[in-house]
Specification:
Length: 140
Amino acid sequence: MANERTFSIIKPDATRRNLTGKINAVFEGAGLRIVAQKRIWMSREMAKTFYAVHAERPFYNDLVDFMCSGPVVVQVLEGENAVAKNRELMGATNPANAAEGTIRKLFAESIEANSVHGSDSPENAAIEIAYFFAGCEIVG
Ligand code: CMP
């Protein structure tokens, strides 16, 4: 599999607990390169648009509130099989089901405050990267 890019968010529960460096160490330790990164505070509109695919789900409003409750770090990760590798590193959405050693097992507080987001496919990665980054901000 060729070099690939995926989109990642370090969520407000993790930035609040000063975990950005620890989470980045997991990515880098597994061979993913952080080729773009910025700390932002998402507006409600941004969070609503980003998670629009979940608009009909019962947790949508709470999820949007949570994602704009504090700063997040948005990132582009690059490496072999980056999408699948990042999902493996993150672990299951619900930390109660996450495997030992995964980011969510190590750090997540709950299914909502689950510390990280990662794209679920290369197609969605391209859409999510383009939503937050200009091409000139990504330096491989
Ligand atoms: P994420 O990978 O960012 O994608 C959608 C998010 O919705 C997910 O992580 C969780 O934080 C959140 N989520 C998914 N399922 C639930 C649920 N049942 N209750 C609350 N939040 C959820």
